[in-house]
Every structure is written in C-alpha cells, then in structure tokens.
Amino acid sequence: MATSDSPKDPVAEQIRTVLDGRWAEVRQGLRADPDFPVAVPGLELGLDEYRARTLASCHELAGSDFVLGAVPPEQGGTGDLGGSVTGLEMLGHGDLSVMIKAGVQFGLFGGAISNLGTARHHEAYLQDALQLDLPGAYAMTETGHGSDVQSLLTTATHDPDTDELVIHSPSPAARKDYIGGAARDARMAAVFAQLVVGGESHGVHCVLVPIRDEQGRAMPGVTITDCGPKMGLRGVDNGRLMFDGVRVPRQNLLNRYGDIDDDGTYTSPIESRNRRFFTMLGTLVRGRITVGAGAGAAARSALTVAVRYGLRRTQFSYPDGEHEVVILDYLGHQRTLLPRLARSYALALAQNALIARMHDLTVGESTGEDAHRELEARAAGLKAVTTWHATDTIQACREACGGAGYMSANRFADLKADTDVFTTFEGDNTILLQLVAKGMLTNYQADFADLDTSGAILFGARQLTTSVIEHTIGGSLIQRLISGASGRDGDDALRDRGGQVAFFADRESHLTESLAMRLRRAGDDESKSFSVFNDAQDHLLEAARAHMDRVVLEAFVTAVEEAPQGPGRDLLAKVCDLHVLSTVEEHRAWYLEHGRLSASQAKGVIARVNELCQELRPHADTLVDAFGIPDEWLTTEMMADLASF
Amino acid sequence: MATSDSPKDPVAEQIRTVLDGRWAEVRQGLRADPDFPVAVPGLELGLDEYRARTLASCHELAGSDFVLGAVPPEQGGTGDLGGSVTGLEMLGHGDLSVMIKAGVQFGLFGGAISNLGTARHHEAYLQDALQLDLPGAYAMTETGHGSDVQSLLTTATHDPDTDELVIHSPSPAARKDYIGGAARDARMAAVFAQLVVGGESHGVHCVLVPIRDEQGRAMPGVTITDCGPKMGLRGVDNGRLMFDGVRVPRQNLLNRYGDIDDDGTYTSPIESRNRRFFTMLGTLVRGRITVGAGAGAAARSALTVAVRYGLRRTQFSYPDGEHEVVILDYLGHQRTLLPRLARSYALALAQNALIARMHDLTVGESTGEDAHRELEARAAGLKAVTTWHATDTIQACREACGGAGYMSANRFADLKADTDVFTTFEGDNTILLQLVAKGMLTNYQADFADLDTSGAILFGARQLTTSVIEHTIGGSLIQRLISGASGRDGDDALRDRGGQVAFFADRESHLTESLAMRLRRAGDDESKSFSVFNDAQDHLLEAARAHMDRVVLEAFVTAVEEAPQGPGRDLLAKVCDLHVLSTVEEHRAWYLEHGRLSASQAKGVIARVNELCQELRPHADTLVDAFGIPDEWLTTEMMADLASF
C-alpha cells in the first residue's frame, strides 16, 4: 500500500497521473492538506452532534479555492469550475455527509443564486453563501412531485399592491420535502414555485425566501419540520417546509430567465415556457455531475478496502494442507471485484471528461444550445450509471469482506447507507436515462424543448432514420481507431481497440434505430402516445444504457491512447480490455440475438474475462493504489486485525 | 389493502392459503397475537436501549409454543420443528434484531445443546436456554476463520490431572468474533474448538463455557469485547471472546458425537474425523433455514410496501394533461417490481417445502444419510439464493419509492441494513453454492464425506457421466408434467408447465455434465487439483444456481398444481409463468449459446415478460395482500402522506 512515506510503486504513479487528469494539481493539493475535512466521524455519533460536526466541516471549506471555483470572476469567484467539482469529488472519499451538505450550500444554493439570479442577488447574497455566512437550502422537491418538477404545486404570486411575492403551499402534497439544511441550519431557501403574475402562471421559477431569523427561529408563515432519521447521510439536516402566504419583496425573484418589471408585467428573454424551464434547470447540471463524481469516489474507496483485504485474508487450505489460499486467488472472488474495478476506471475517466467539458462550456464561449443539451444528457446518463455502479460495487465489496464488512469500523456501513440515495436524488436514474434517450432521438435539437420527454421521444422517433453516433470524447482519435480496426466479426472485432468501440457503437445504433422504427410504427394517434411510449420503455432504457456504455468506453480508450508509453499504460490497456469484455459478457444475449456474436464466440468472451481476471490479479494492489486515496482516509479495523495475526 | 376489519379479497385469501402452507395455523395464530413482538422500534433508539428492548422481546418469546417446537418431546419440547421455524419466519416481518437474537438463543445455543449434547446437558441447561433463564451465545466464527470451520484455532485440551477441559485462544486470529449475545447478555457460550485429548487433536467439537457470572461480570480468563456499531441488527449485542486457559469440567463437552471417557480416552460413534465434523455441522441446518426464511419474509415486506406505494403514487401526466400516471402503470416500474414479486412467491413456496422436509426428516424415522445430505445442500442453496434475492429486492423497492424510500420511517432503511449480513453469515453464499455443487456431483453419497469440498467435487466429477435429476419436491407430479409436455423447443417448451420444468432441468443437467467433463479432462494430477477446481469455479457456481432454479421452480409448480381450482389458482399460475419467463430471460444468453433458444425465440421471451407484467399489474394489490402481512406490521409515513393529498 502506498503511504506518503513508503516508496511509491512507479506503475501505480503512472496510472494515477492518468486518473488524476486535468485537475491533478487540485487532487494532489487536497491529498496533502491536513485541514481537508475528509475524516469520517466516530461511530454512533448522536444525530445532533453529527449535524453540528458536518456544519463545522462545511465552515472549514467555506471560502476555499474550490468553493470559489464554482463562481465566475465577475461574481467574485475564481471561475475554476472543473477544480471545484473535482474538489467535491475528493470529498467523496471521506464523510459523504460533508460532501452533500457542502454540495447543497455551495453548489445548489450558491449555484441557484449565481446561475438564476442577477447582479442584485450576486451582490447581496453570493459571498455570504460561499463563505457560509448565509446557510441556505435548495427547496425544489415536494412531497407530491419529485421527478416531475414542472408540476410543482407551491405558488409564488405577485401582489401588485405591495409589489411582493406571496409564497404559498396550497396542499400537503405541496410541502417541500427532503430539503437539505432545512431541518436545522438554513436561514434562506431558494424556493422553486409556480410564478403567478397578473393572474397568469408562467411556470416554475426560483425565489429567495428567508426561512429562519438570526436566532434560528422559523419566520412567520413558515412551518419547518425535521425529516428525522434516514438510511444514511445522518450529518445532513433534511427537513420539510410549508409556506402559508409568506411575503417577500419582488426583488427576491431570481430573475435571469424571467422577471416582473416595475409595472407588474412578466417578461422573459425566452419566449417558450418549456424552453425557459429546461434552460433554468440546465444551469444546475453541476449538481448531477457532483453526485456522479461522489458516487464514483465512494465506489473506488470500497474497492480499495475490499481488494486490499482480499490480498491479505486467507481461507481454506491448498491441497498440500500447508498453506491457506489468499481469497483474491479464487476465481470467484476475482470475478466479484476485478470487473467492477475495471468499470470504476472507465467511469472515473468518463467523469473526468465530463467535468472538463462542463468547465469548457461554462468558462469558454458558449458553443450553442446543442452542446449544452448534450452536456446535460451526458451528465444525466453518467450520474445514472455511476450511482448504480456504486450501489452494486459497494454491496459486492461488503460481501467480499464477509462478517468484517458488516462492522461499521470497516467503512462499508456508511459507504453503503450514504450513497444509497444517490440513485434517486438529483434526478431518479430511470428518468435520467429517459432524458438520455430523448437526446439520442432528437440529436439534442433545441426545437424539441417545447415537448415533454415522451412527446420529444415520439417526435424524434418520427424523424430519425439512421442514428448518427457522435464521438463526443476524443472524436478524431476514436474515428481513426475504428477505421483501423482489423475485423468486424465477433472475436476479431474485440481484439483491437477500434473494433471494441465499433462493437459498442453498433449496439447503440441498432437499439436506437429499432426503437425509432418501433415508435414510428405506432403512428401519429395522439391518444395512443402514452401506451406507445410506455410499451417501449424497456427498449428505450436499454438504448440509453448502450449509449452510455459507448460514451464511457470512448473516454477510457481516449485516456489510454493519450497516456505516455510505458508499463502504466500497458496495464491500463489490460484494464480497458477487461472492462470491454465484461461489458460484452453482460450483454452477450443481445449480441447473440442480433447475430453479432456466434454461440462459440460468446462462450469465448466468458473465457476471456476469466483469463483477464487472472492476468490482472497480480496487479490488483497497484490498481487500487493508483486511485490515489491516502491510507489515512481509509483506515479500517479489519486490516489492523489481519496485521496482528 | 387487507386490514383485519376490511372485507377480504377472496382471491387474495385463496392465494394466502397456498402460501401459508402446512403451518398455516401457526401463521394465523401469530398474526392475531397482540403479544407477538413484531413491532419495529422507534427511530434512533440508542444502542443500549435497543439491545435491552431486543432482549425483552426475546423474553416475551421464551417458552412459547414455537420456541419449544425446536426441541423433541423427550427433551421437554413439543417437537413441532416446522412450526418453530415458521414462527421465526413470521418474526422476520418485524424487527429483524429480535428474529436474529431469538434465533441465536433458542435455535443456535439451544440447538447446540439439544443436538450436540446428551441427557446430562439437556437436563442441566435446555429448559433454561428455552426459557431464556440462561442467556447463551454460539461461539463458532473466529476472526481468522469463518467459512473454514475445520481450521478453527481455539483449543479445548483435556487435562487428565483435573479431568477438565482447558479452553484457549492461542492467537489474535483465534478470537471468537461477531458472536451474538457475547457483548452484553450471554452467560454461557457454546464454544467450537479443536478438541485435544492425550496430546492428539480430534477436530472441532463444542464445549459449554460459562463466560459471565450472575452479576454479568466476565469469568476469569475470559476477555469480552464489544464488536460495536454494525451496519444493521443494532439490537443484537455482537461481541468477541478470548479465552486464556479457561477451565471447565470435562462434562461440559457436548458429547453426542465425540466423548472423553472416565479414563481420559477419546471415543466417537463416527470413526471418520471428516464425517464426524460434517455430521455435527449437519445438525445445525435449521440456522440456515431460518436465515433464508427471514430473508424471504423481509423481501415480501419490502415488496408489499413498494407495490402499495406504486399503486397510489402518481408522477407525470398523461398526454391529456389532466391525469397523472400511477407509477406502477409504467412498464419500467412493473419490470422492477413484478418479476421480483413472482420470484418471492417461488422462494416462499420452496422455503415451505424445505421446512416440511426438515420437519419430516427430524421428527420421523431417519431416512438415511443421503436424505440428510440432500436436505443440507438444499438448505444451503436456498439460503444463498433467497438472501441474495432479498438484498436485491429490498434495494429495488427502496429505489422504487424514491426519496421517501430513504427515510427511516418508511422501513427500507432497517430492512436493508438488517438483512445485509444474511448473504455472508450462517455460511457465505458462495461457499454454500459450492456445497450445492458438491452434492450435485456426488449425489449426496456419504462416501465422499471424507474429502474436503474441492476433493469431493473432483472425485465426483470423475464418477459422473450423466447427471440424474431427482425431483425432490412433488416427484411424481413433476414427472407426469414433464412427460405430458407438448414440445421441447423454445417457445413451445415454455408454453406448458412440464416443458418449463424440463427447460430448467435441461440447463441444470447440461451445466453439471459439462462441469464434470471439464474437471475430469484435467486428469488425476493432485498437484493441479487446486487450479483445476479454481479455473472452473464460475462454471461450478452457475451449475449450483441452475440446480436451485430448478428445485425452486418445482416447489412453485407443485404448489400451483395442488391448489384448489379457482381464480386464486389461475392467478398463481400466471405468477408462476412470470417467474419462469423472467428467469429464462435472465439466463437467455446461456440458452442461446447452447442452442436451446433461437434468436427470435429469445426476443419472444423478453416480449412475453413485458406482457405478463402488464397482465399482472391489475392484480398487484391482491398479490401483496396474499402475503398476509398485517397492515399494523407495515405502517409507513409515506402512505399516510399519500392519503393526505
């Protein structure tokens, strides 16, 4: 194991450099920073104590480089958005309550002010939010509506007599629910509500609403309750908010995309109500990116612990009766951990590419609405696949450590409980994959922003005849690899990198085109549009997964190709092979059904996964060292026990 | 929803009768028993308080009918073993800490005394154990050895001078670990240790060792530590035990299968050391059966909550814009919940058949060692597949309830955390599946009991040419169905029940025969035996899973066939179809690779699963009502919220 003092494994270092990517300096700085609040709390901390501790950790982060990175220089930040999200990702190796609470305060609350507000909000609130002098909440979800944000019930009604907005929760279903910060700390909430001006509703907008006074008492008309105990993230004070005709000045409307002028008229730079809504939501993409990043980090923490345990723990003897078998020498154990390790590599590199893309699109010149839609779809898809991967991987790692894995002192209890909600918050994963499918069918054309998801999908299906795969990551490099591939048939295709990518892309194209054909066949009968869409939902989700498989693989391949020659790159290439082969193995029924693999080729894929597991086994330690998680961040009781034997 | 007051759904009642099975009376009695300690504790109970509460609940159970059922009449019990395990299964719908602590006290500690001890132990301790006047622990697992019980390091050495046994932990790896009851309550432990008599080791035996005095202080030489916080099962006081030359009278040896006579000589009715070991362990099969039963119960609780939520919760509107869609109307949501619901039916019925078999074998005349080995293998396999099913299903149900599913008040937090360890305790699932494979290759012949698992598997492989599928559940009925099946080819085969069973059995036979062939091909070179076994481990595990799929299906089919004609049976038959088709869908790559399904037939299976989901959707409420879990046992905050909208 690499510790700061032990001699470094040069291969691990080479690979770590690749994984660290563009914001390597941020990562290295945080690894070496003794004040980075990454330590996990003592066991069985009381709820109040845990919440206080989490808030204190967020105060340590307040105003730091990576918090200021979230905001452009003209608003008082550094504009290093990529560094900012990378910093939050690093927090994901520690106490996830801190990561989430920091994400809510600086990313969501601060982000809403920064992205949806204008100068008056930036000047009044932004520094206070980033310095945590103004603890905030992001009040979007309601008890009755989570995924369907457009149907939120809370209203913000303009009263022309007083020039105020009246915030109101008309029913129990309108209660703001699961709101981080609401139960204990937040003094102001960014409240999403239907904006009603002159008796007319203009759809969901965001309004800053004070919810507590300086003494922490609820403001008049605001009812605050505590969500109480949750499965995990115990340090985050989730609560509920009900508003009973709460009045705030009109100026509290975050008015970048929709405003009320002095004579009480609603105006917006975006005419279409739907497009306005999606544009507002789109600015908040970094929340999803952060959740995906944190999930990936948590999965890498779990794998590091489980692989190191598997390399030390023995059980049952060799037939010679003299030596016990190291459990990672069992093929079954390798199959549990190593394909998930390979996939963690793929997802980490895809995450890096996504962060870079977000950074460039935000910081640089705007490259048009299509590019933003593509980013949003990719962020949605990567969040979905990474959070599911994390849930699955942490579970597998827990089981791989047996009874020891169940003890809280060995980290999996918190990793599992804290990350569990990632699959459904910041967008339910299934809904997010539908968003991906929408993008695939419409090629991110903004023209479809006026349709809801199912409408856009059906409309897109009518237009699409041949899907065009855009190699969004490493475009020309990927194109060159595909062109240079030796064969296109089963084993051959999988033997070289270009063939592997083409194999994934072919699955994506076929699933997309057949989906479009299937949806088109149903005709234009509007009354059937729900059943047409619904009957194909499994196909649609499969197409979205296939798309993400291809996008993720391209990120992995690009990183391997761009890495400097050497043993690090060679090992990385083998990890990429395992990722490819185990993904194909998982979907081999599809490849068989569609004549892409013969029966014997499919069996060959299984055999090749076994071989690759056994070939990578001697490098397992190097591969988790390369994640670059400092030992001090991952101390466990079970490793100390093994050392005492 | 069925409440005790609401009019019953007759179809749900018909199906419940089938699910309740042979011990329906026990189930009905406990459902109506207001003192049955099934209530879950208030949220955020402190650890000490929770442990005290759990002990108190066990006191309520002490001496009750189903506790006394675990012990035969000649030992002072009622001998209703089936009723006893069924009662523990019902506890599985409530607080799982109570189920596990009760299982440890009455099933494991009491069971060790009953099954491994003789009259002197029965008279001295058994009633006290069953009445909880003597809180006990079952000290098998050590920090260094869990699955490999034969390699335990703790020693029990006979001292002829004092005629005592000296219990000793020679190293940190010998520490007894994760021992339920050890941290707080247990006064005596059933300690598994290498028995050394006259300087010779006779393998693992069990000795009763007092660990605390009446005042709760650790006995001299016994060091007790607390395992501290765990992922779940917070009410169970798991602890660690170290023994430093602790002396107990020779009579404390549980001596049914191995004894030390008055002149200090070791004797045993079983000559072979290996067979003796497996016979001793075999008597403890009910622990595994109970864990599988509890896992199944927990999965049914989770499905009941998630299905009812899915039938009330709406999200997104139909294209008419007026109505919101009930989320269980989405195909994706149906696919998440309904195949798992069908599988829960299959596993519940297989569990009933297993409990009945155990009961008959224990209570009736012994029907030979083979029958016991078959029971052990089936118990091992069903525990593995049911606990994995529970982990997967509870997770899916949590996600199906979104953010609400994450709140502790909605039950999934505890269900998930409490059941998590089931996949690795009472036998790691992977090891258990290897045990199943061993039985498949050796046909449970006792001759192989002298070989360890890998040895037996290799030996069995050398003998096996054609595997013989024994239809252990509903034998002649199943045989008749298979003979009467119309076709054997893809779709046709899956259209009638006999064909479905044959389709599963064919997969099992082929996997078993090809495994045997593969292992044989490697020859007799002993030095290669580990690598031969290890290289085929994935194949071996797959064969074991296929075996369990067939065994579980036969239980389901038998229950359907034996049910009285009527709408309940018709609906049950459709659930069975979904179980069959979704299982085939999951393994369709194998069926394609082995020419059992054509590509178009495989696609047909996917389409048929979708159809069955949609056909069963209107009956979802009936199907969870039929689980017969009283509403009062499953109260959740989120259902109350939905009712308030």
From TrEMBL, chains A, B:
Q: What range(s) does the Acyl-CoA oxidase C-terminal domain occupy?
A: 502-634
| Family annotation (InterPro entries) | ACOX_C_alpha1 (IPR055060), Acyl-CoA_Oxase/DH_mid-dom (IPR006091), Acyl-CoA_Oxase/DH_mid-dom_sf (IPR046373), Acyl-CoA_oxidase (IPR012258), Acyl-CoA_oxidase_C (IPR002655), AcylCo_DH-like_C (IPR036250), AcylCoA_DH/oxidase_NM_dom_sf (IPR009100)
Instruction: List the SUPFAM superfamilies.
Output: Acyl-CoA dehydrogenase C-terminal domain-like (SSF47203), Acyl-CoA dehydrogenase NM domain-like (SSF56645)
* Organism the protein comes from: Janibacter alittae
Which PANTHER family would you find in this protein's record?
ACYL-COENZYME A OXIDASE, ELECTRON TRANSPORT OXIDOREDUCTASE
Q: What is this protein called?
A: Acyl-CoA dehydrogenase
UniProt keyword Oxidoreductase present? yes
* Cofactor(s) demanded: FAD
Which residues belong to any copy of the Acyl-CoA oxidase C-alpha1 domain? 282-440
Assigned keywords, A-Z = FAD, Flavoprotein, Oxidoreductase
Which protein family is it in? Belongs to the acyl-CoA oxidase family.
| Residues annotated as domain Acyl-CoA oxidase/dehydrogenase middle | 137-246
